[in-house]
Amino acid sequence: MGGAASLLRSPRGLAFVAVAAALVAYYYSVDQIPALSDWWDVALLGCLLIPAVFSLDLIVLPLANARGLFPVAAALGALAVLAEVGDLEVLANFAKLAAVTFFAFWFLQFFEELVLLVIVAVIIPWVDAYSVFRGPTGHIVSKHPHVFTNLSFGFPLPDGQTARLGLPDLLFFALYLAAAQRFRLRVVWTFVAMAAFLGATVALAQWTSLNGLPALPAVSLGFLLPNSDLLWVKARHWPRLS
Predict the structure, then answer these.
(1) What secondary structure letter does DSSP report for 35?
(2) How far apart are CA 59 and CA 36, in angstroms?
(3) Cβ-count burial of 29 within 10 angstroms (0-12 exposed, 13-18 middle, 19+ buried)?
(4) Which of 105, 128, 137, 227 could form a disulfide with 216 if both were Cys (CB 3.0 to 4.6 A apart)?
(5) CA–CA gap between residue 190 and residue 223 (Å, rounded)
(6) Sign of dihedral through CA atoms 72, 73, 77, 80?
(7) Over the Cα atoms of the chain, what is R_g?
(8) Tens digit of pLDDT for each residue in 52-75?
């Protein structure tokens, strides 16, 4: 992880500190902000909070090729558990984000061919949709909300409510972003598309008055759509089954 020190001294490091400080300030002061209407909450979440939180992934993306990511992810996961037990919500929240992000960076090494990741991106939205509407995720959210709270990242809103994304959503966001870098796809546009589709999912949930919608379809589309032409070109070189 020697690259971490150089990253912190770079413009990216300054950007990371600035974004992290702004987010922490918001998280600690959100209770003092006057309540907004539901649609202003949607705008705040989709246009500011989601892009700001996930911009941390984008900033640390050069570390995706670093060594020793798994133990770092494990240590951050342990910190998240301890912070959760100690009722340190903000620390637990961002420790979970960091742990899942570094785990995703490490996990990418198992995808030696881009085609494997594309197959996952096509299949996983259907699995997530089933899990949310008829499977274990929906059951946990409705019957055991405290479990989902512990296994999710919270976006607190001025009206006292908290929007949440599950840890798998964080994992695939970081995984796709790192894959875009590794396989020479459009990194920035992948980030923009994934964040935008997540914001659209929030708006759709508000419009349909649903308590929640699966987020992985948005994340997967955000990876596939802005890179579709590049994926098509690269597909000609993918291994074929005989």
Answers:
(1) P
(2) 30
(3) exposed
(4) 128
(5) 5
(6) positive
(7) 18
(8) 999 999 999 999 988 899 999 999
